[in-house]
């Protein structure tokens, strides 16, 4: 099992910044991919950014150039630095970890943290 706890959400004005953190614990040694997803009211959950294999990084087109994902292996923590925030970034942000054990892959999710961008 892998436990994920997000923090850092809140209310911010358009153009502002926030940094989300995701602390992982448990059987993290076989986690090979971590990422951030978000879900706005009435919409499906979507990928924001993820790190695979420690080096391959992907971003959704909507956040490229504004958001930066990073991971501190020693601290078992992943971050999402969000800059130039827009009202359309408002959503619940979820941390995800994918763990491989043999041929079985399992996804783990945090409880989510609310990000609201509004003036």
Spans where pLDDT lies below 50 across 5 or more residues: none
Taking all Cα atoms into account, the compactness measure Rg is 14 Å
Count the DSSP helices: 0
The structural class is mainly beta
The topology string of helices and strands comes to EEEEEEEEEEE
Describe the overall structure.
This protein is mainly β and 119 residues long. It is built from no helices and eleven strands. The protein has strands spanning 2-7, 10-12, 18-26, 31-39, 46-52, 56-59, 67-72, 77-82, 91-101, 104-109, 113-117. The strands form two sheets. Strands 2, 4, 5, 6, 9, 10 and 11 form a seven-stranded mixed sheet that branches. It has a four-stranded antiparallel sheet with strand order 1-3-8-7, with no helix packed on it. The radius of gyration is 14 Å and the shape is elongated. The protein starts with a strand and ends with a strand. The relative contact order is 0.31.
């Amino acid at each position: 099992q892998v436990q994920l706890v997000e923090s850092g959400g809140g209310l911010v004005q358009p153009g502002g910044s926030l940094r989300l953190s995701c602390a992982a614990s448990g059987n993290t040694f076989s986690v090979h991919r971590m990422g951030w997803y978000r879900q706005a009211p009435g919409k499906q959950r979507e990928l924001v950014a993820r790190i695979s294999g420690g080096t391959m990084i992907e971003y959704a087109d909507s956040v490229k150039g504004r958001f930066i994902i990073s991971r501190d292996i020693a601290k078992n923590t992943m971050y999402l630095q969000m800059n130039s925030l827009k009202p359309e970034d408002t959503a619940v942000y979820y941390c995800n970890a994918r763990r491989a054990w043999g041929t079985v892959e399992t996804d783990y999710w945090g409880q989510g943290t609310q990000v609201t961008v509004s003036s």
